[in-house]
Design a protein that fits this description.
The complex is a heterodimer of chains A (277) and B (315).
Chain A: H1 3-33, H2 37-41, H3 55-61, H4 66-97, H5 103-115, H6 122-131, H7 138-162, H8 166-174, H9 179-208, H10 211-216, H11 225-230, H12 241-266
Helix pairs in contact in A: 1-12, 3-12, 4-7, 4-9, 5-7, 7-9, 8-9, 9-12
Chain B: H1 2-6, H2 17-52, E1 54-55, H3 58-63, E2 67-68, H4 72-78, H5 81-114, H6 117-132, H7 135-146, H8 152-159, H9 174-201, H10 206-214, H11 219-247, H12 251-257, H13 269-279, H14 283-314
Helix pairs in contact in B: 2-14, 4-14, 5-9, 5-11, 6-9, 7-12, 9-11, 9-12, 10-11, 11-14, 13-14
Classes of the chains: A mainly alpha (277), B mainly alpha (315).
Chain lengths: 277, 315
């Protein structure tokens, strides 16, 4: 064996070891959620259960407010993402296709707003929404989520629109289409994958959001899944670990599935351009 | 761009109805976004400033009317030792987290270049899986792995003879609480940093590295003189993003340490803000803390925003 392939094998060992360390928490979550209680509570952990069970999943979904919180999350996320995609798309077209006074300021605001820490805005948003009686309503959370995902969506969609070759659109216009016609027939189908990717990312962001849902929704029947999961332990902390891990797995599944679909397309939105230098 | 191309008219620009209509198109397109963000960000930020100058507690919240007290809220936090301790703790926390994230991510990215194809696919898939984990879920898993009765971390550390961690309580001291939060955050942030850096590494021209190697440069020198300068722009962006995220971190710190264990001795900035402003319903003071925090973040994000705006202008 040459020194080179020996070195490569060394790196491979390190790589596999790091894989094991990084993935272990996810593995442990899934594995715990299928284990019988005596294996979970034992002092010596069982790595792979000999008697897998679905009991914890049944326990988790029969906990109070599980289905309420799932319904709330789905409802909030669908409406927030739907509205923000329409609004963001219009603004992204403006940024990608037009030069206008104030364009730069608009870009600065889109990027700058993304950087604001959510915690810094909880108090004014709470006070303002309380003023208009939108605390403890899903509408309040929806509008907050819209404003949270808009800047990111505008920025990403702009990139997708720019990625469409200009010639295609121009060719359509030469053929006698109006600008709107060219837009509908050429631009929209081409940008559809970008729209899907961006909306999935917005979906994930809203589904995972915690702090605003926590402060804006007090009524247990109105909570979202993340808040429901965070209250799962209760205050006592003598915990049904199996059900907690089953609930965690259920909360993570939609996000992980969606994320795997769009990760490649969207991952570089935040650093776009920097990689190219 | 498109507007200019469409109007190859004589120089004299007449403000016909058509021209005005065309010129207003981009403004009409951004109007909805501007409207929404104006109502949900600009107005609240204006209210934030107003609130920070008022006495505003639950009583005033119900009356919808605060009492003007000038800069009292600011002087009260600036004279509060808890604020200064929290600030220092948050800065140290941020430096440690960002350092571990960026250095760890760089090491992972360099490793990804050196391993065989199948290991690269395996490791990348693992990283993407970790990346996809929701924060609140990750907190629950962390808590389960480190619980003092039968946490798997205690078991593994004891088996590896690192020490006797039988029924060790990781939530007993501030240091180990924040240490766990750090591990949780770094674990969650590594995939994004590593995969982005790996993509950037693939932009490093092979000929350049080979030429340096042929000239007899040692691997370490090749890295410092060839690879690192090319990675620099991406590294700087990732670092500033990480600084912003870690400085403002709330969910992991608040939930992992747990509401019952949170006390002024282990506050991070966002937690301090949440406890003082929201839990104690002192919205005026909370607003003052928010403003201080937002000003710090605005200063920190200057570099990132400037860089990204340049990218936006070029295209």
């Amino acid at each position: 064996m040459s020194a080179r392939s020996l070195r490569r094998n060394g790196w491979n060992v390190v790589g596999v070891a790091l894989f094991v360390v990084m993935v272990f928490p996810v593995f442990w979550m899934i594995s715990t959620s299928f284990k019988p209680a005596d294996e979970i509570n034992s002092q010596t952990p069982t790595w792979f259960s000999g008697h897998p069970t679905l009991r914890h999943f049944a326990d988790a979904i029969h906990k109070p407010f599980f289905w309420d919180s799932v319904k709330n999350s789905v409802f909030i996320v669908l409406i927030a993402v739907g509205i923000s995609m329409v609004l963001a798309f219009l603004a992204a077209v403006a940024l990608a296709k037009y030069r206008f006074t104030g364009r730069k300021l608009f870009i600065v605001l889109m990027i700058g707003i993304q950087m604001l820490p959510g915690a810094g805005l909880i108090i004014p948003l709470y006070v303002v929404l309380a003023r208009y009686h939108q605390v403890d309503t899903l509408t309040g959370v929806i509008v907050v989520y819209i404003s949270a995902v808009l800047p990111f969506s505008v920025w990403t969609l702009r990139g997708f629109i720019l990625g469409i070759p200009k010639e295609l659109e121009e060719a359509a216009m030469v053929d006698g289409s109006t600008r709107l016609g060219a837009f509908a027939r050429i631009l929209l189908p081409l940008v559809a994958p970008g729209l899907v990717a961006t909306s999935v990312f917005a979906f994930i962001t809203s589904w995972n959001e915690y702090i605003f849902a926590r402060i804006l929704l007090n009524d247990q029947s109105k909570q979202t899944v993340t808040v429901w999961l965070s209250y799962f332990l209760g205050t006592s902390r003598n915990t049904d670990w199996g059900a907690l891990m089953a609930a965690s797995t259920l909360t993570a599944i939609p996000v992980v599935l969606f994320f795997l679909i769009v990760q490649r397309r969207i991952a570089f939105g935040l650093t776009a351009g920097a990689v190219k230098g | 761009m498109a507007v200019a191309a469409e109007a190859p008219r004589p120089r004299r620009r007449r403000l016909t109805r058509v021209a005005v209509a065309r010129g207003s198109v981009p403004y009409l397109l951004i109007l909805p976004v501007v409207g929404v963000l104006g109502a949900l960000l600009a107005y609240p930020i204006y209210r934030l400033v107003a609130l920070s100058l008022q006495k505003y507690t639950l009583f005033e919240l119900i009356r919808h009317k605060g009492e003007w007290i000038g800069l009292d809220n600011f002087s009260s936090i600036l004279h509060d030792p808890v604020f200064w301790h929290t600030l220092v703790r948050t800065v140290v926390f941020t430096v440690v987290n960002v350092g571990l994230t960026v250095v760890g991510g760089l090491v992972l990215a360099l490793l990804l270049v050196r391993v065989s194809g199948w290991v690269r696919i395996l490791l990348t898939s693992g990283l993407v899986l970790v990346w996809a984990m929701p924060q609140v879920v990750a907190v629950q898993v962390w808590y389960w792995m480190t619980n003092y009765q039968n946490g798997v971390v205690n078991y593994v550390l004891t088996q590896l003879h690192v020490g006797d961690y039988f029924q060790h309580d990781w939530y007993a001291t501030t240091f180990s609480q924040l240490g766990l939060v750090t591990l949780l955050i770094v674990w969650g942030a590594l995939p994004f940093v590593a995969i982005t850096l790996y993509a950037a590494l693939s932009q490093v021209p092979r000929e350049l590295v080979e030429a340096a190697e042929i000239d007899g440069a040692r691997p370490w020198r090749v890295f410092l003189d060839v690879t690192l300068p090319i990675l620099m722009p991406v590294l700087l962006i990732l670092t500033s993003l990480s600084i912003l995220w870690d400085f403002g971190v709330f969910t992991q710190a608040y939930l992992l340490i747990g509401a019952s264990h949170i006390h002024p001795g282990n506050y991070l900035m966002s937690v301090y803000l949440f406890q003082e402003g929201f839990q104690k319903a002192d919205y005026g003071k909370g607003s003052a803390i928010s403003i201080v925090m937002l000003v710090i973040v605005a200063m920190l994000s200057f570099f990132y925003v400037r860089k990204m705006v340049r990218v936006g202008e070029v295209e």
